[in-house]
Amino acid sequence: MKKFYLKNHSCHSELDSESRTPGFRVKPGMTIVFLIFLFVILANAGIHPVNAAGYGLSLYPPLLRVHIKPGKTITQVFKIDNLIGEEKIFIARLVPFTDADLFGNPILNLKSTAPWLSYFSLTNSSIKLGEPFTIKANSSEQLILSLTVPENAALKDLYVTLLVSTYSNTGVPNYQGTQVSATTGSNLLITIASEAYPPTLLRVENITPTSGWLFKFGSYYLADSISPVSFTAQVLNRGDFAAETKGIFKVAGQKAEPIYLEGVLPVNVLAKTKRVLQNNHGENFVFTPNLGHIGPFRATISIKTDNANAENSITIIFLPLKVSFGLFFASLFLIAIYQTTKSKKDTLDTS
Amino acid sequence: MSSTQTISNTINYLKNHRCHSELDSESRTPGCRIKSGMTLIIFLIFCVFEFFTSASSISADTLTSPAFKVKMSTINITGGNKSSSSYKLTDTVGQTVQGRFDSAGYIIKAGFQYIYPLTAFTFTISDLDLDFGSLITGTPSLLTNILTVTTGSAFGYTVKTIEDHPLRLVSGSTTIPDTSCDLAQPCTQTDATPWTVNSRYGFGYNIQGTDVDVADFVDNTYFRSFPIQDVDQPATVMSRAGVATDSAATVTYKVNVSGSQAAGIYQNNLQYIATPSF
Is B31 at the interface with chain A, CB within 8 A? Predict the structure, then answer.
């Protein structure tokens, strides 16, 4: 469209002049040059994608779990990738946290600080915590984070998130609206202890069937024996150190023989916090019984940490409720047919 | 007594019982014919029941065979590659510690599943500059950008947002207030409600896409106001308890001003914070 417009426009302008022929001779050449020029620009644009206002950053590793003795030093490299075709200024900082939601997401207060943040430092020559640094377009940078725990450090857990944020030094933007800044984080769970595996104190709580044909009687659950039953559960870490939830969800019959096993997703539970337990797919535990599963069954969650076990269970009585209801209604239906047929017969016989 | 015998006896009992009752009536033969049909149907229902019961006991036998023994200490409970349309996961659950290293005085485990090939946590935003241009009173201005998250070796994430202050005059303290949506059902920083009336003014956002709370942002007419830094807690806009690959959500920013709004350039800063779960 643009090409046609230019060509026609040029012709018309030439028509106004008296030297029409030479003008037509020049124009095709000009058009070709213009097209080549356009092609070069577009080709270059393809090689160097321009995304001036975007943001893309990846941070590795997303989680660092460290057990460390007082007096020791470790170093961990965090790799940052600037994923866009534009040089960006970033700033890295550490934000401590003490709490998390039930799914292991830290509850961050961006203003919070802690005296033990001084244990951390960047050993990069040109990048410091809290100071801006530049990453070129589609390039990477490494943050070499060093943790030095003093000899007299308290034996406890330190939870901190490394945040890498966009940084603007251009002042107020010259438009009406909102300037968006972005922050990407990585969590560090540090256990300062004199032993490799400090004592953990987990308690499995609230194992609850949540879906399926369920009726609760006191502490017992009645469930249909052919409907899947979904379970939720939580774990409470009553100890002073974070622990990992390695374990199993098990359903066992009267002889304590397991008829169903499912792995518990191994996740970290902060000290003095709760966390939802899930299966390896990050979903609720689901047991699908069959008609042979009738009677009381135990649904158990067992967690094994490096130096302790935790277990809890509930009793579910599986009954063929749906089948019974089906048979009941089928019987009613048959009886109704029978009664109708019988009454018709009686009427016929009487008449 | 086997279940087959039980059924047989039950049928005989039903048959005899029904025929005896029929003896009391005068029309013996037709009644017995009907009952035989009923008995046959009941027998079929029992057969179906017995079939399912028998089939179920086979799988139970398999699971409780002598070769199957659960010991928490060392046995693998599950492991290997797991995949679905949305993710792929390798795990080893119940096995003793793997893939981490000990040294004098410290243990480091990097990544969530430290036996999994570790990949980075990635967060992208399609546009950082939201230029509304000139605002027309009573006519909402809308802009969008796209947030995308890939968890890598993290198992879950959240994206939260917070603004430094409401849209504010560059040279002054006058603000365009954060929206409270339609009067009939006001919205909050954590509760989205419809904002469709053009005589309702303010600044707010809607988000649609993957890993968004669809129970709150029911459709693209539902908006929330932004929480304010140093006053409120950041609001969660995207979250997932599991692996995410290129989870994307479109945020729509809406601003609507009244005729009495002071003229000038209004600005604020909005921050998105993406953190992986641990």
Answer: yes
